[in-house]
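#data-curation
PF: Archiving a pair of folding outputs for the training set. Convention for this channel: one message per protein, sequence first, structure tokens after, nothing in between. First:
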Amino acid sequence: MEPITLTTERLLLRPFGPQDAEASYLACQDPDIQRWTVIPSPYSRADAELWTEKLAPAGWQEDTMYNFAVVRREDGPLVGALGVNRCTLPGTFEVGFWTAREHRGAGYTTEAVLAAARWAFTALSADRLEWRAEIGNTPSRAVALRAGFRMEGEQRSALFNKGIRRDTWTGALLPADLGLPGTYPHRSSPGVRGAL
């Protein structure tokens, strides 16, 4: 897929490039980003260069991972990162994100997640966008809830991070949650929270 840029009221979500290596390196020195995400720890400049110059662009080329540098529209500093990744089940994608420490609390990541979700539901024909975070990562959970994800429970040993299998919270967002049509009909079960 050709890389694209998404625009919101305050943000641009654009593909990562070599110009983002230094800002990514600096943001990822944050112990919270290293603790709660699967990035290498410690995180080196070489890791940032590999990510911005090779891995992130390869995801677009291979049509498997769509990673965005999240920047403010007016002055362009890196606010965070957001990725939409294909899952094995057709029409299912997973979203992941981190926010630079100095930009937390402004609602940027929720805004970016909603823009990426609308794009995934329309451009990628997604019928389900999943979110997963290690149990205890309450800031990530708060973003997912503000973006409209419905929490679906906990999964044991569902995340492998830094040599340890970890339990996760899981949630999902469907096109109908944003007032959008799905690619395929969805038959919900009466006992599922939020079912019609």
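PF: Second:
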Amino acid sequence: MYGWYLGLVILVACERVAELVVSLRNAKWSFAQGGVESGRGHYPFMVVLHTGLLAACLVEAWYRPFIPWLGWTMLAVVLLAQGLRWWCISVLGHQWNTRVIVVPGLRLVAGGPYRWIRHPNYVAVVAEGIALPLVHTAWITALVFTLLNIPLLAVRIRTEETALNSALVK
């Protein structure tokens, strides 16, 4: 069962690369429109944490059994998280980025999942951070990632809120 899990983690890694491509394109657009970046200090930690998640999934899963009822359920959560993430990306359009870059004067996006949740992308991040390791019973990875991600998300959300409140039209 490990072989297909390896494939899944590689697919998620490829998805991350696709996010970075979109993010770089959107960053160029944002800066061309006068965008201002905030929160550079936490970004390297975020990159290391998310890269570490993928690596740790593979290492720990090597020693763990695949438990069908847990694995298939968590795979469904991973897929739903990916769907939510790309829904957020599509709704935000040029305003979506892995960095915090805000173009002054733009309106706050209130459509799609943002109709119901202030930061739906982070719901996807939390769900995936728990579910991806648990697809192959890597519970230590799920726990450690979640515990490290909590303070990171607190900083990230506070940074975004400050940037959005100072630059966007409501």
